[in-house]
Amino acid sequence: MNYFRTLLLLFFCLKLSTGLSQILPPTLDCIRGDTLYWTPENNNCGPFVSTDVFFSPNPAGPYSLLASISDPGATSFHHPAMGDAYYFLQSNYNCPGQTPIPSDTINNLPPAITTLEKVSVQSDGVLVSWYDNMDQKTVAYIIYRSTDQGTLPIDTVFGGLEYLDRSAMAGQKTETYYVLAMDQCGNTGFFDMPHKTVHLTTKVNFCEQYIELNWNNYSGWQNGTESVQIWLGLDGAPLAFEHQVQLTDTLAYVTGIDDNREYCIAISAKENGRDVRSFSNMVCAISDVITPVDQLKIRNVSVNQNGDIDILWNHSSNADIKVLQVLKAGQNEPFVLLQDYSSQRPNSDDVNTTDTDTDVQNQVYEYQIESTDECDETVTSNNFSSILLEVQSDMPEQNDIEWTPFQASGRVLIGYQLCRINESGMSVTLYETEDGPLNFTEIIDPTEGSNSCYVVKAIHTDINSADTLESRSNLACIEPQIGLYIPNAFVPGGVNSIFRPVPTFDNSLINYRMQIFNRWGGLVFESEDINHGWDGRQNGSMLDPGVFFYLVTFEQPGGKTEMRTGTIHLIR
Q1: Based on the domain organization, do 474 and 494 belong to the same domain?
Q2: What global pTM score does this model have?
Q3: Tally of domains within the chain
Q4: 375 and 320, same structural domain?
Q5: Environment class of residue 466 by beta-carbon count within 10 Å: exposed (0-12), middle (13-18) or buried (19+)?
Q6: How many other CB atoms sit within 10 Å of the CB of residue 86?
Q7: Is 412 exposed, middle or buried (0-12, 13-18, 19+ CB in 10 A)?
Q8: What is the per-residue pLDDT across 424-448, written as a single tens digit (0 to 9) for each?
Q9: CATH number for 81
Q10: 204 pairs with which residues across the strands?
């Protein structure tokens, strides 16, 4: 029983193996023109009979036998077809019980159109990429580029979907590309829409400090462009997004650039609805732009110990300046040149200029700095005036002091300090004020007989309170004023027997004269020596008691003429 079952199983397997045997078809390679080409298949099941060619004008059939070719070495068949033609082949062998199977079906249509994904400029060429056209006949892709001689093939790619064109000149012009599919027979598909690279050019504006960008828009995407961006890399840094422009823009500016820095710029375009981005050529350049004057200000104006005026000012020493001048103006006068630094620029930002041609005891001076850069842009500093202090005395026991206000645009006054400078040079503060009266009266001892010297200091800072400085006025001095003590009565031969004025501290008065008049205006006595007084006589004769009038004139230190008048009682 087991033996019978084994024989039955072997018989069943043999029949199954025989029933599944097939006659393999030739490999249908391609169609070139009206000729089919194939590679024969060797079947060993029996003798060769023919290669059968089947045809239909429709891909769904029905197919009819077009020809049976009895030559086993035949590899082609010519069939002039009108319109679309679809073919498959079968191998006909005398192999009883075995079934021939058909080859793949091909048609006489060219390979499907190939759609480009993008063309993007890289440092080593143009990267061309495309989508798989999903046509089984396609065995390779041919890359075409437009040249002055026309659109020419530059390379063929097997088994890939991108190509790097290292011979492109995308840094000098826009490059245009096509990709065509190719089948086994060398047939190519139709040209699709070309894709064009973005070509960027730049131009640096020296005076306006910007880089002008010009480019053409990306061309070729069926979905259109979603965004166009400017990418920037500074001083060797990788490119990064800078800002986005309008889709139709082909002109933009990178503003506010600095001198002597490397700017690398590219344009990036993104396809609408897809994460596909194309870059232009990258343009790198070391910027050559003007370094403008970004600071020009007078920080302080102050009278020094020599009576000259020091002007402390600040400027951009690295700026491209062709004219740099310090200007001055007297009261109600136009500005004139004080010092020209155009040919020999200061190396430091901070500069001190001393004005030695001044009359600080009588004049207020205003100062200004003016610069003109290499693009003929003129910048003017703030104005800053000196302070004039004056002192006078109408009475020997007091000095009246006043000064001009602190005037400096861009500076903030903190307050004034009025100081007396004694003979040893020590300073004593007499008066301080923030915004009070610009005058002060000092009560002095009229018998001291020494000069009084004063200076006022304006304490000021910048708007950020970070640069506090002191602007000093001129040193103003006044000689002591001589006072006269004049008695109103005297008794010849008594205690006060001689009538004469007594000065407060100096007996050597300049241009001194004393005259005594009677009540009728007659001159009874005259002296030009303060030590020679009136003894109550006229021409040697004693006068009767009564009221007399005196007139005393003299010159104060400094040249002012003083006059004293009054009455004197002569008593016996």
Answers
A1: no
A2: 0.65
A3: 6
A4: yes
A5: exposed
A6: 19
A7: middle
A8: 788 899 999 998 899 999 988 776 7
A9: 2.60.40.10
A10: 211
